[in-house]
Every structure is written in structure tokens, then in C-alpha cells.
Amino acid sequence: MGRTSANHLDTTLIEAPEDDDSGRPTGDKLLPALVLLWSRDEPERVGEVICLPPGGRDRIYTVGRAVTVNSDGSIPLTLGQVRPSGRRDTGPFRAAHISRRQLALNHEGEGRLRVEQVGRGSLRLNGHPLMHGVIQPGAIIEAENRITFLYTERPLSWMRPQARDAPIGFAYGEADPWGLVGESPAAWELRRQAAFLAGRDEHALILGPSGSGKELLVQAIHGQSKRADKRVIARNAATIPEALIDAELFGNLRNYPNAGMPERPGLLGEADGSSLFLDEIGELPPQLQAHLLRVMDHGEYQRLGEPTVRVANLRIIAATNRDPGELKHDFLARFPHRITIPGLHQRPEDVPLLARHLLRKIARSDRALVDHLIRDGEPRLSPELVSALVGYNFRTHVRELSELLWRALDRSTGSVVEPPPQLVAVSRPRPIPESTPHTGALTKAQVEAVMERCGGVKEVAWRELGLRNRYQLHRLLKKLGID
């Protein structure tokens, strides 16, 4: 009766087997999770996670303000800040608009989750008004005008408790020291790969769609490397005129090749001891890619007009949104390390965090525009805007997200940022509105007879009555006035 949900979660995880039937380690398992996308009264908690412990279909969990196991045996789950380093419990919802038990959840197997509205207000699943239904990962759960969740998954290995005084590195949901924003597994995998590459010194190729943040990743790699005391030298390869490519890359002596030309060290000379970032490397013609091969192998190059060979100690980090197979094969072979940046469709739970980050940046440069939309440092986004952005098919990703937010700001005259007309909410599949047994057909005498026959054991009684779970039995007993 007095157990807290956090203790129950820890106990359940400790009792879970270390290996599943396939022999994979525990860390490979995924737990059903609800990521908070929007909150009317606690927007600072966006990004926090509720994880469902591994268990059978008989367990009922609730989400709300409750912290103790209810008399019907349903187990309240609380929010937490979940990272690869562990889970930091942050407690239940605190806002009065949230019921003590707002939602009831239970596993349906194969990743399916049954959701039922048991508190105040109405429920929408994937935008469809339903009081209960079965959903798959990727679904949106809205307790209307209260909270919005994304149903997803988190690795079981992330669930170990994290000490409250443990260093967290940077605030949960905020940008890391390199400007990367996100708490999703995809975002943390990107950080892991960046840290790995930072400890290596070979050339690296970054792949990913336009606007996904390739330059930020370069800064994360360089900033954690032994070259971090020198700034990155960056250039967009597509902007280098073909006739000047050698002069731009290798530099030239004074008055060469034309009189009056100043002496230039070239990008290679500027990047000596540091990293050279060449964006859109796929725009560099194959014959010009060949000019870089010897530099990449040995660091050797010659300035135009200079007979001596120079040696640059540099690392080349290139990026492209093209198929890497379009690069010259021997040029591509010089990049032993490759990272693919995920698009926003691969980490939708990060979209509200990115939107908050971008709106704060806008506020710093144009406070008059955004000031009425920020309360206690938190941009106030409408739930309709958040749901639409999370399901949006981004083509240029963070760049396009920023553009949509500017359009939203242009149209928002109230106290929250509303979606612009061109942002239409994505049409999501209707969840399975599983039929609930018609409890109204059961009389008080019938229920009392079954309870007596089962010795008052509710775990047995709800099955014999043909009910869906213990939670439904509890409501039926309350409705019929049975103690």
C-alpha cells in the first residue's frame, strides 16, 4: 500500500533476468516508455520519461499525481530524467489539473500498449478521441489540455538509478557543450560516436540530410579531441571556384599565379595543427578530390609557385548529404570513420526540446517578438503545435523547424505559440478501440457471489467475471457499492 512507484520500478528491474531467450545482454532490451512532449503546467519537464517495467499483461500502471500503490493493486509510475548514465527520478506530476490517476496502462505484448483515460478530461490517441485503445510505438497520447506523450522505447540498461549528486554534465533537455540538443537514444548514440572519433585522429566523413546539424557534430568531435586548443578551419567546398581550388586549398606565394596576388597559406596551412572541415564535399569534382589524396595520406602539399614541399599536421572532417558512393572511390577510402546523422523523423521526441532551444535563441535577439510567449524562461507552445511538429515530415530538418517556428511566431498573438496555417497535423492511424466488457450487465448479486466464491481475491475474481483487468474490477466494485 505504501510502496512508491520508483522503488517498485527498481525492484522489478533488479529482478529481471540478465539475458533473454536469445542470449542477448540486458542492455539490448527495450522498455515501453512515454516521453513527455507537452505539459500545460509543467513545461520545464518536457523530455522527461515514464518507463514501464517489464511484466505481463496482468499488471496495471497509472500515470498522474499518485505515488503509492492503490488498493486495487495498480502501480503508479513517475517521471524521470533518463540517460545512458542512468535514471534520475523526478517524481509524479504536481499540477492540480492532473488527476491522481490520469491514465491507466498495461502491456498487450509485441510492443502494444493499452491506454485508458481514468482521470478528468478527455483522451485523444493519435488525434482520435477515444476513452481507451491499443497503440504501437510512435503513437501520440493526449490528455487534452493537460499533457501530451509520445509512446516509444528506452534501453533497459538506462534504467539503473543515478545518484542525485552525480555530475550530469549539462542540464537535462538542454544543449550540450557543443550545441547538440536531444535526449533520445539516437541523440545519445550520436554523442557516443562523436566522443569515439574525438579520441581517434584519422579523417572522418559525416553523412546526413541537409539541415541535420553536421557542423555541430564537427565541433563536438574537434572540441573533445587533442586538437581542441585550435579553432576548426571550415569551408563549404561547393563555394570554392573550380579555377581557384588549388590556391584556396594549398595557398600561393605572393604575385603567383598573377601579379598583385597576396601570399596566402591556404586552408591546409591555416588548419595545420587543427581540423579542416570541408562541408558539401560531394560538390567537389572527382579530379579535384584527387588533389587531396597525398595530403590525406602524408600531410604533404605545395603552395602554388613554391618548389618546396610542406607538411601539415591536420585532420580532415568532410560532410555530405549525398550518397557517399558518388565520391571518388580512392578519396572515399581515405575516410575510415563515417557517422550518419539521424533526421528528425528518427528522433521525434527531441523536436519539442529543439523547438524550445530555437525559440530561446530567437528571444535573445528579438525579445519584443517572443517576450509575451515566454513564462519563467519557458516558451509556451500550444499542444496542437507540438503534435504537428512531432509528426511533420521534415526535408531540411532543424533548418526547416526553425523556419516553421518563425512562421508560427508571425501568427501568434496570444500567450502561446500556435501552429501556422501551412503546418497541418499529420494523419496518424486510428488505434484499436478494443471493446470493454459490458460491466453494466453484471448485477451486484452476481459480483458479490463471485467475490465470495473467490475468497475476496481480486486477482482471481476479475478473470472469472470476464473483466479486462483488476483496475476494471475496482471501478465496478466502487460503482456497485461493494466493499
Task: Give the percentage of residues in beta strands.
Answer: 15-25%
Annotated CATH topology of the largest domain: Rossmann fold
Structural domain tally: 4
Average pLDDT across residues? 88
Q: Largest sheet, order of strands side by side?
A: 2-1-13-12-9-10
Helix-and-strand structural type: alpha+beta
At the first level of CATH, the class of the largest domain is: Alpha Beta
User: How helix-rich are the residues, as a percent range?
Assistant: 25-40%
Rg result: 28 Å
Low-confidence stretches: 1-6, 14-27
Main sheet properties: 6 strands, antiparallel
Shape: elongated
Structural notes for this entry:
With 483 residues, the protein is an alpha+beta fold. It folds into four domains: 5-159, Tumour Suppressor Smad4, CATH 2.60.200; 185-343, Rossmann fold (3-Layer(aba) Sandwich), CATH 3.40.50; 345-411, Helicase, Ruva Protein, domain 3; 439-480. The protein has 15 helices and 22 strands. The chain has a six-stranded antiparallel beta sheet. The longest helix has 15 residues, at 351-365. The radius of gyration is 28 Å and the shape is elongated.
